Amino acid sequence: MLRKYFLNKDFSTLSADFISSSIILFNTLTWFYIIRAIINNALQNPNNLLFFATFNFTIIFSSLLGAFVAGKVKRIKILYLWVILGVMSSLFTMFLDINVAYNMPLIAFLLGFSFGFGMPSSLAYFADCTSFENRGRSSGLLFSISIIGSFLFLSCLGESWFGVLFASAIWRTLGLSVLFVLKPTKTNREPKVRTHPSFRSILSIKPFIYFIIPWFLFSVIDSIERPYFLSLVEMSNATDFIAFDEIFEPLIGVLFAFIGGLVADLIGRKKVIIYGFLSLGLTFAILSLAPTMQVFWYVVSAVDATAWGIFYVMFVLVLWGDLSSPGSLRERYYAIGNIPFFLAELVGAIVYPLAQGVSKETIYAAFPIASFFLFLAVLPLMYAPETLPEKKIKERELKKYIEKAKKIKEKSG
Fold first, then answer.
1. Helix (H, G, I), strand (E, B), or coil: what is residue 192?
2. What is the spatial distance between Cα 121 and Cα 141, in angstroms, rounded to a whole number?
C-alpha cells in the first residue's frame, strides 16, 4: 500500500528525481543531527553561547545567502558545491580541538555554513519532487528514518570527535555520488524560467504569516520551558522519569512524525497542526495545576514529543512547499520558514543555565504562561488557509465511502 504513495504520477516506476531528492535530504538531516549531537557531547561547556550563537546565526545567514544565490545559479551547481563544502568542513574540523577556545568560533562557522548554504535548495528540490497528495507522508517517513539513522550512526561510532567527523565526510561524499549516478533532471532547471519572489514579498503573504507566527511561538516557548521542566525533574531526583524521557520521548517523536505526515495527507495540514497546539497547551495547563504529580510529567513528555514530531514535519518540510507554487523559487520560502527553529536553538542555550538553581515556585509560574501562549498561537491558524486542496480531501472521502459501500454490498450479497 505504501508503494503507490512514493511513485510518480503513473504509479509505475520510482522517479529518479524523487529518489535522489530523498537520499540527499536524508543524508543532510542525518549529518546535521549527528554533528549537533557530537558537538553537545564534545564541548566541555555545553552552554557556550559564543559557539551556539555562531553556529545558529551562521546557518540562518548561509541559508538566506543560498536562497538568494538560487535565483542566479542552477540548483544542481548549488547542490554540488554545498555537499562538497560539507565534506571539506568535516575533514578540516576533525583536526581542530573543539575544546580550545579560539577554535570554537571557526568550527561553528564552518559547520554552520556547510549545512545552511544548501539546505533551502535541498528542501525545495524535495518539494518539487513531491505533490500535495504525498508530501505529508513522504516527509514524515523521511524525517523518521533520518532520526533513526542518526541514532544508529552515533551508536556505532561512539562520541569520538575525529571518528564521527571522518565518517561524516564519507557520508556526505556518498550523498554527492547520488547526483552523479542518478543524474536527476529537476536539479538542472534554469533559474531564469522560475518566478523570483523576494524575501520581502514572501513576508507580506498572509498565509505564510499565519503559519510562521505559531511556528515561531512554539519553537521559542518550548525552548524556554524545556530547561525549566528538566530543572524541576532534577530537583525531584526522578530517575525513572529521566530514563523515560531520554529513551521513549525520541521514539514517540519519530512515530508521530510519520503518523502526523500520513494524517496531514488525509484530513489536511491545518487540522493536524491545530490539534498539536491544543493538546500541548492543555497539557501545560493541567501541569500548572498539579506540577508535583509525576504522572503529568510523563504526559507532558509524551505530548511534547508528539508535537515536535508533527511540527518538524509540517513546518520544516511540508508547509512551505505547499505555499510555494511549482516552478517558483521555493528556496526562499524554506530559508525564511526555518529561521524560528535555529533561533529557538539559541534561546534554549541562553535559558538553560538560567533555569538551573531557580526555585520551584518560579518553575511552577512558568507553566501557565507557556499554556497561555500556546493557546494564543492557535489564533493565527484560525485565519490560515488549508494548504491541502479541498478537492483532494473530498476525493479521498469519496473513495473511502465507495470502498465502504462495496464491502457492505459484498457482505449483504
1. helix
2. 20
Element (H, E) at 135: helix 135-157
Whole-number Å distance between alpha carbons of 172 and 407: 49
- Alpha-carbon span 151 to 145, nearest angstrom: 10
Architecture (CATH level 2) of domain 198-413: Up-down Bundle (1.20)
**pTM of the model as a whole:** 0.86
Residues 59/116, Cβ–Cβ less than 8 Å: yes
Q: How far apart are CA 205 and CA 337, in angstroms?
A: 12
Alpha helices in 237-359 (DSSP H): 239-267, 269-289, 294-311, 319-323, 330-337, 339-355
C-alpha cell at 13: 516506476
- As a whole number of angstroms, the distance between CA 116 and CA 272 comes to 28
Identify which of 165, 222, 259, 211 has the alpha carbon closest to the alpha carbon of residue 366: 222
DSSP state of 181: H
Tell me the one-letter amino acid at 5: Y
What CA–CA distance (Å, rounded) separates 41 from 43? 6
Residue type for 41, please? N
Give the pLDDT confidence score for residue 5 in this predicted structure.
43
Cα–Cα distance between 190 and 196 in angstroms, integer? 12
pLDDT tens per residue, range 349-383: 788 777 777 777 788 888 888 888 888 888 999 99
What CATH architecture applies to the domain 12-189?
Up-down Bundle (1.20)
Are 147 and 155 in contact, with CB atoms under 8 Å apart?
A: no
Alpha carbon distances (Å) from 281 to 190, 217, 274, 376:
45, 12, 11, 9
Q: What are 197-214's pLDDT values in tens digits?
A: 788 889 999 999 999 999
CATH 1.20.1250.20 in the chain, residue ranges: 12-189, 198-413
The CA angle 13-18-20, to the nearest 5 degrees, is 115
C-alpha cell at 63: 541559508
| Distances in whole angstroms, Cα of residue 114 to Cα of each of 32, 103, 261 | 10, 17, 28
Degrees, nearest 5: CA angle 216-222-228: 145
The torsion angles phi and psi of 58, rounded to 5 degrees, stand at -65, -40
In a 3-state reduction of DSSP, which class is residue 195? strand
